[in-house]
Amino acid sequence: MATQVFKVKNGETPGGPGGISPSGAIERVREWVQGSRQFLHEVRTELSKVTWPTRDDVRATTSIVIITVFFFGVFLWLVDLGVQRAVEYIFKKFNV
For residues 22, 25, 29 and 32, what is the CA-based torsion angle, rounded to 10 degrees? Predict the structure, then answer.
C-alpha cells in the first residue's frame, strides 16, 4: 500500500489552492453544468407561462406613450418658458 506525501507551502492545503483536488475540480464543473441546465430549463418553463401582448396591444401602448411624452414635453417647455420670463421680470425690476 502506497502512502502519498504532499508538500505544503505558503499555507496551501493538499490538492492545490483552496484544497481542491483534480477530481474535486471535475466534480465542481459537473455540478455547475448540471445547475446551469436546471436553470435554463426553469427559465424556459417560466417563459412558456408568459402571456405575450398582441401586435395591436403593442401599437396601442406605444401610441399612448408617444402622446404622453409629447404632452409632458410641451407642458414642461411652457413651464420653463414661464419661469424664464418671471426671472427676467424680477431681474429687470431690481436692475440686477
Answer: 170
